[in-house]
Design brief:
The chain has an eight-stranded antiparallel sheet with strand order 1-4-5-6-7-3-2-10, sandwiched between helices. A two-stranded antiparallel sheet has the order 8-9. Helices cover 23% and strands 35% of the residues. It has one domain. By secondary structure, it is of the alpha+beta class. The two termini are 29 Å apart.
């Protein structure tokens, strides 16, 4: 992996938080306004309205996310001194390979910003690098710094697999090497294929089929002690209200 150092590059959370919140609420507000007469009509955002990342990147057809963490099960006390690790996996479907390739850097930057949204007073120094022998093309960022008085490490890899981008980001409030687990999960995802069955969701909100089959199974080695926490469809080009 080739890292590009940015020793003086500091990423502040306040403007990013405001920007991301604006993207999250802009489209739903437009749709709500269009439905005040009781008729479900898809709103059309004005040119001035902030756009979702999925509307900004060209050719996005769908985006889904799955999260894991090593948070102990409910009712189980956390071991003293344990630094909890959180991992987010993302599959973004594009209409063609060219659109996917052109969106590598944009998705990487959005991913590392989104992993900070629930944190405060974040200051990070980033190393950006190209990852060889991972998918058709791949980019990574490793960021270290602080959130308040706590140490913070965030690592993100985005890899292209044809007309899809597969992204995995890990975060921990400690100075810890996250690259092995993040790269391991991306590698497993690159080896998997979309399911032939239709997408289904169970009573627990867990999705199967379609692009959901690309995510690792719980028994796959890269997940180690990480437990599946939740699934969320972020965007579908057939619907008017993207999330994020």
């Amino acid at each position: 992996m080739r890292w590009t150092n940015h020793p003086g590059r500091t990423l502040m959370i306040a403007p990013l938080l405001a920007m991301l919140l604006a993207m999250l609420v802009a489209a739903p507000l437009v749709v709500a306004a269009a439905q005040t007469d009781g008729t479900p009509v898809a709103g059309i955002p004005s040119e001035e309205a902030p756009q979702s990342i999925w509307q900004t990147l060209d050719g996005v057809e769908g985006a889904i996310v799955r999260t894991w963490s090593d948070v102990p099960p409910p009712g189980t006390p956390s071991p003293e001194g344990l630094d909890l690790q959180f991992v987010t996996g993302l599959v973004v479907q594009f209409d063609d390979e060219a659109s996917a390739g052109e969106s590598l850097d944009g998705l990487r930057d959005w991913m590392i910003a989104s992993l900070q949204v629930n944190l405060v007073d974040v200051e990070l120094t980033q190393q950006i690098g190209a990852v060889s022998n991972l998918g058709d093309d791949a980019t990574a960022v490793n960021a270290t710094g602080t959130t308040g008085e706590n140490l913070l490490t965030i690592t993100v890899i985005v890899a292209q697999d044809g007309d899809r981008l597969l992204a995995v980001g890990g975060s921990i409030m400690a100075e810890e090497e996250l690259l092995p687990v993040v790269q391991g999960i991306v590698t497993v995802m690159l080896d998997r294929e979309p399911g032939e069955d239709a997408v289904e969701v169970d009573d627990m909100g867990r999705f199967t089929g379609g692009n959901w089959s690309i995510f690792p199974e719980q028994e796959d080695a890269p997940l180690d002690n990480l437990q599946r926490q939740g699934d969320l469809p972020l965007y579908d080009s057939a619907t008017p209200t993207p999330v994020g």
